[in-house]
Each structure stands twice: as C-alpha cells, then as structure tokens.
Amino acid sequence: MLSLLLIILAATFFTGIIIRTKSIASGRKGPGVFQPIKDVVRLFKKGSVFSETTSFVFQIAPTIYFASVFVAMLVIPFGQSKGLISFNGDFIFFAYILGIGKFFSIISAMDTGSSFEGMGASREALYSMFAEPAFFILMGSLALLTGYTSFQEIFSALHLGSSISYALAVMAAFVFLMIAMIENSRMPLDDPKTHLELTMVHEVMILDNSGFDLGLILTAGYLKFAIYGAIIFNLFSGTIAYEYAIPLFFVMQLFLAFVVGMIESFMARFRMNHNAQFIVVLSSVSLLIFFGALLVSGKFI
Amino acid sequence: MNIVWAFTFIPVIAICIIPFLNLKWKAISVYGAVSSIALLTSIVAIKVLLGGTFELTLQGSFISGPIRLQVDALSAWFMLIINFGFVTGGFYGIFYMSAYKNQPKNLTLSAILFVLLYTALVSLCSIQNSFIFLVAWEIMALSAFLSIIFEHEKVATVKAGINYLIQSHVSIILLMIGFLWVASQTGSYDFNAIRSYSLAHPGGVSLQLYLIFFVGFAIKAGFVPFHTWLPYAHPAAPSHISGIMSGLLIKIGIFGILRMLLLISVDYKIIGIIILVISLISGVYGIMMAILQQNLKKILAYSSVENIGIIGIGIGLGCIGLGSNNLILCSLGFAGALLHTLNHSLFKSLLFFTAGNVYQATHSLDIEKMGGLIKKMPQTAFLFLIAALAICGLPPFNGFISEFILYSGLFSLVHSATVVSLLGIVTTIMALVLIGGLAMICFTKTFGVVFLGSPRYEFHHEVKELPFMQLLPLYLIVSLILIIGLFPRIFLDILIKPIQLFTNLHQLPFTSFQGSGIETLLSVSQSSLYFIVAIIFIWTLRKLLLHKRTKTISSTWGCGYTAPTAKIQYTGGSFSKTYSQLFGLLFQINKKEKVVKGIFPAKASLVTYTYDKIEKWLIDYPIINFRHFLGRFLFIQNGRVQSYVAYGIVFIIVILTLTFCNFLI
Fold this sequence. Notes:
The structure holds 2 protein chains of 2 kinds.
Chain A: H1 2-25, H2 35-45, E1 48-51, H3 56-75, H4 90-111, H5 115-146, H6 151-157, H7 163-183, H8 202-205, H9 211-237, H10 242-266, H11 272-296
Helix pairs in contact in A: 1-9, 1-10, 2-9, 3-4, 3-9, 4-5, 5-6, 5-7, 5-11, 7-9, 7-11, 9-10
Chain B: H1 2-17, H2 23-49, E1 54-58, E2 67-71, H3 73-97, H4 104-126, H5 130-148, H6 155-186, H7 191-200, H8 204-221, H9 230-236, H10 239-263, H11 268-292, H12 296-323, H13 327-362, H14 373-376, H15 378-391, H16 398-413, H17 419-451, H18 468-486, H19 488-503, H20 520-546, E3 551-554, H21 572-575, H22 577-582, E4 588-594, E5 605-611, H23 613-631, H24 641-660
Helix pairs in contact in B: 1-2, 1-4, 2-3, 2-4, 3-4, 3-10, 3-13, 3-18, 3-19, 4-5, 5-6, 6-8, 6-9, 8-10, 9-10, 9-12, 10-12, 10-13, 11-12, 11-17, 12-13, 12-16, 12-17, 13-15, 13-16, 13-18, 13-19, 15-17, 15-18, 16-17, 16-18, 18-19
C-alpha cells in the first residue's frame, strides 16, 4: 500500500524533472516540474477525435494499457512493506501483465490503418520481445542470490555484503534503467521529442489518440518510470527504516530522473537498425549478473 | 461390458445409416452419435478422475490375444479434452460444412469419417493391446487423411494430404517396430508386456525402445524436425478438421509419449533432457517460422509446433524432476504439460474456427489480402482476439496459467541446482520468454493485418458475419478459456490423479499441490480479477466523462498527406520485415523480383515466400538424392515386354532353387 502511494507521488514529478533537466542542460529555463501533470489534466477535460478507420479495439486499448500498468504497479513492494499483490513468482505476473498492455497498444496502432503507426507497432513488438529476456534473467539471478521468488522477499533478503554484490547491484540498476528506457521509449532507443514520424517508435503509435485516451497513455508512461525507479530503489534499500527510506526513495527517483534527462541531453539516438543489437547487449549484461550471482552464491567451485 | 457394446454400436449404426439420410438428418445423426459417445466416455472418465477404476478384458482373436481396455487418470484427462473438442468442433463443423451443400456425396464421406476419427481417437486412449492400438491408430490416420482432402479437386490439397499420409505412416512404421520388438521378445501384445520387458532390460535397451516410440509419436505430435506435415495439412483441411487436428489429433502424439513414459522404465533424467532440448527447439523454431507466413492457417500450424514445444518443455521438466527425485519439479512439469495440452486444444481450435469464418467470408487465407474485417465480422474478430491473447500466454487467460506453472517449476529449482543445470534452467527460461515475445509479434501481426485497418483487397462478394449458431460453440470455448484463467485451482485439482501416475513411478509421495508453490495460483487469479476490475472501472469512468464531450470522427493522421489509400498500410510482410532481416540466417526467404529500370520502366513486381529450411535439408534433399540413386536402375524398367517376362522367369527360378535347397524357412 505504501509503495502504491509513493510511486504515484514520484510519478507526478518524474517526467517533469526529466524535461527540466533537459531544458537546463540546453540553456533554457523550461516548463515547471508539474507541467506534464497539468497537460494530462487538461487532456482529461477534452473531447476526443477518432479516426474513421478505427474500431472498438482503438477505443478500449488505452484503458487496458493503463489498467495493465496500474496492476503492475500494485506488485511493486517498498522495502519491507509488500505491494498490494505479492506472491511467489509475482515478477512473472508483472512482466506478463505489462505484456497485455503492450499487446493492446500495438493492435490499437494497427487499427488506425496508418503506415506510420504500423511502423511503430512493428518496432515496439520487436523491441519488447528483445527486452524481456534481460528482465527475466536478472530476476532469475536475484532469485538465485536470495533464494526467494517474489519481489518483496527478494528485495528484503538482498544484502549487499561483498564488493561483488555491489557491482551486481549497480549492473542490475543499469539493466533496470535501460529496460525502463525501452519500456518508455526514451533515448537512446527512441526520441520522444523527434519531429519526424519515420524515426519514432512509441510516439508514432499514439498519433491518433486524443483527449481522455491520450491522457491515460501519458499517465501510464509517467507511472511506468516511477515503477522502474521504485524497483531500482528497492535493489539498494534492504532493511532501511521507513523514516530514512521514504526520503531516500524520493532522492533516488529525483536522481534517476536527472540521469535520464542527462542521457537524453548528451546522447544521440541510435540508428534504428542498431537498436536490436543494443537490447541484446542488455541480455548479455544480465547474463553477466547471472554469472556474478553464481560466484556469490558459491556455485562455482 | 455394456459400455463397450454401446461404444462400438453407436458409431457402426451411425455409419451405416448416414448414406441414406438427407443432409439435415445426416448432420443430426453425426452429431447425435458423437455427443452420445462423448457423454458415455465422459462419464467413465469423470468416474476415473474421481477415484474409480475402469478395466475390462475382451476376448479378442487368436492373432491379437486378449484385448485389455483400461481407462486410467491419464487416459481420462485426454478423453475429456477430446470429447470437448469434438462436441464443440462437430457443432461448428455442421454449420461450416453447410456451405458445401451441393456436394452431397462428399459430405456423406466426411460425415462418416468424422465419426470414425472421433471413435478412433477416443478408443486410442483406452486400448492396452498394441495390435489393436495399431489398428485404431491406422483408422485414425486414414480417416484424418480422407478428411484433409475434402476439397480434393485442388491439387495442393491432395499433395498436402499425401504428404500427411506418408509422414503418418513413417510414424506407424516406427510404432510397429517398437511394438513388434516387444511382442517378438515376450510373445504378448499386451501393454503390460512392454513394462515387464523394460524392467527386465534396463539401461540402453529400454532407452532405444523408448526413443523409437518417441520418434513415432513425435511425428504425430509435430515436434521439430518432424513437423513438416503440419503447415501443409492444416491449411488444406476444412477448418473444423484443422481445428480438431491441431487441437486433438496431434495431442494423441503427446498422449503416446506420456503413455510410454509410464510403461517403459528408463533413465528419466536422460529422456527428460532429450525431450527438453527437442521441445526448446520446437518452441522457438515453430513461432519464428509462424511470424513469416502469409497463409492464415499456416501461421496457426506453425504456432501449433510452438505450443507442442511448450507442452514438451513441461514433459521434459517433469521427467528431469522424476529422475532426480524432485517432487516439486516433477509435479509442476507434468501439471504444466497436461494443462497446456488442454489450453492449447481450446485456443488453437478457437483460432482455427475463426480462421474458418474468415475463409468462409472472404474465400481466401492470404492475410495480405485482408484488413478491416473487424467492421464486417465483429464477433469473429472478438473471438480471434481472445484466442490470440490466450495463446500469447497473457493474463487473465488460460495460457498464462500453464506457462506460470512451468516458470514456477523452473524458478523453484534455481537455488538447489548445480552450475550445469542452472545453465539449462536459464536457457529454458530464456526460451520460454522468447517464445512469449515472439508469439506477441506473431499474433499482433496476424490480428492487426487480418482484422484491423482498412480492407486491402476488394472482394467481389459480400463479406459478412456468420450466423450466431455457428459462433455458439466458439463462445463456449471462450468461456472455458476464461474459467481456466480465473479459477485454475479446479483444473489443477483434477490433474492430481494423472500426475500421481507419474510420481508413483519413483514412489514420490504426491497427494496435492500443497507446498509446491502453486498456492500462489490463487493470488494469480485474484490479481487477474483486480486487472479486470481496473479495466471495468476505468472504462466506466471514460464512458461517464466522454458522455457529454464532443466526439469527432475524422480521417487518420496522414502527416499532411490527404489522399491515403489502403495500400499505404503496413502489411504482414512489412510488419515482420525488421525481424526477418535480423534472423535472416535462420530462414530461407525466396524472392522473385522485377526491379524498376530505365526511363520508362515496365511493370515491376516483388514476390517473396518463405520456405522451411529444416524441410529442405531433412525432406527435400534426401528425396532428391534418393531419386537420383534410384534413377540408376531405370534400365531395368525399359518398357520391353520380353525383359519383363524374363524378370518373371528369373524370379521363379530363383525361388524354386532356393526352396529346393531349403534356404527358405
């Protein structure tokens, strides 16, 4: 329950901080931190425009996408306190429930019959296919390290003792951050601020969404960032008491948003056909973590 | 005894009277026969699953020896799956076949074959005599062959049928070798003889025997590399037959593999690893090929190969668990496999039936010609969508449950495993995840291209939704898919008895799933319910908020381009282009291209089609080489009658000489 509140709170400023960081890095003042939320509220108040090509799939897809992200959020714990949903293997559920949201966002893009959106859909399907093994290997290694198979138990049993385990945690944080970037279609895989449809992935899929539906999709994106931020925080939190953990959580989220903003400011987007290779690299890094976990748990003689 | 009589007489009577009835009564009698047998056998199966027994011995002939019939929990589980599949498939089939009213003879034959196929499949689950088993197996293979070539005026259909016929007979030969091996050693055709023979000859002999059976059944089940008949047979057959073939017929191969595991005692660890490796390859290869296909039913056929792979992963894990006396892995592996067998039979038959609807509406299976069907056939589109979500293993549908069980089994093993087995576990997890991701590409592509967007091709006839009665069985399947997805415990409790058969092989004490981490399924279904509640809540909110707002209908965003045509849409081929380039090495994609050249270019064209590399190397090349080799003996067939007479005389002389010298016998 605690995690739910904290993630929602973090989601209100996460994207704002990214945008602010980017503005300052490029020498502008930039909009306020809560501007994204204001945008969404404005969208919620608007009417909608639907393409004549679309069907009920297009209408219901944003709802399902948002619901999937929302339910995925319920799985995330906060330090010692469980998420609303917690059971053995809940991270499998987490990945698959996000999967159904993705399924619907892909088919809703195809529903418009636009060539751009078809392109985005094809890319999204391919990238998410590549990103998933990294997540599962990573969680598998953490399960191996701790002997548990649910988010909350894994994170509360994760003691960072030796230097190897610190290295592992840093690498894991890197992988989670990159998965967050892929899931949210940010740099270096996709540029949310690009002006050309041909080079978009996620943005092009939602070209035809408007009003309430677009608001839902954007909110889901903000939540997704905060969810992955919370997972990364959990990697390090261990058994810290709440009075320190909660401020630390916000510091961590701010820091992550700052990092994302810096990456976006100082890195160019990869060439489209190199993206797949980059994502495979992620799986390799998580395999490294797996071997590190083998080392730590003493399976290698 | 009465049950057996009823079981034999109902189909015989049905087959005898069907030719003399008019079309309506033909349908009624076929369906009546199928559903009455289904009722009969379901009662037996349910009794067995509740703890009863069913075993009786028929006298048999002097060739076969006494024929033992036994329904154990494993047979009962498969019988129930087959019954449900045939009851729904038969109902759908009646309406599907009514499009062929003008071919009454053909319909008579297909009605008779439907009853025969069903009877053979159900009886295969209970026959415990290898001689009779082979007879029933042959009846099943032949009736399936004749059902496939229903549209025999098409050359491609007959070719596909013959391909199936030959491959299924290779399977029968292997089974025959296996059964005769045992029979010649023990003098009995009874299945118990197989058990006693393998107990007397442990180690290598049993392993060889098992592998012969495994390959025989794997051809039927469609494991890679024995899958090549599937992508031909499924598109050729009428849709209710393809649904039944993919949902049930190939499952009898799985049944055979499981049955032989119970009979032949081998080193389960080795067998488990073999099955696991083959299944991993089948799973990944099947879905990778599925993405590239353009024929709707070929996509589904390759996806069957993938799902057989998932079932095989479960069997493999179960065997490894059995071999290493790991109760949790054993029970979860077999539970995943058996549940996925049911799940796959549900969503795959649903997919084939909806593909049949599409075929009836458009008279085409080429997905590149479709698009926008959701507006004309909303119910079919909805049903296809549910099946597609289920086959991708997404919650809250049934596919997720069986995959979750397999994942739980794998993760339960993580802390106790050694380095080598951990590598195996990681590979299996990666493969399962990849299968999930690839399935998502495959089915978003299929659903998107077939049903969404705007029509890519103008059909010269009206495309319309099918009557509700034809869709009724499909809704029944959807409801079962949802029930399994939301209340999996019911089905797992039924599975306890079949799994006990396997755990008993090593005297592992298995009475319930308590303690194997499967209690979490309760939480899974709870979370799925949260998800549904969240959707309903947001949807209602959206309805309320948008109620009074302006709602504008406009054209799709065209980036300034104001005259879009349906041709600028992404096609199936373009959707999977990046993917097929990335994995280009694995596929053979043939291209026929006429490029644009010169100042006044002529008409350009590009045709691509995918060919199965495994088929090329394993089927085509050997056949070409064999033909080449046989071509050397063409001089014997020289067309001169004199030579042929001479061959006859030489043959007779040889036989006579051999007989005189007592070389024969």
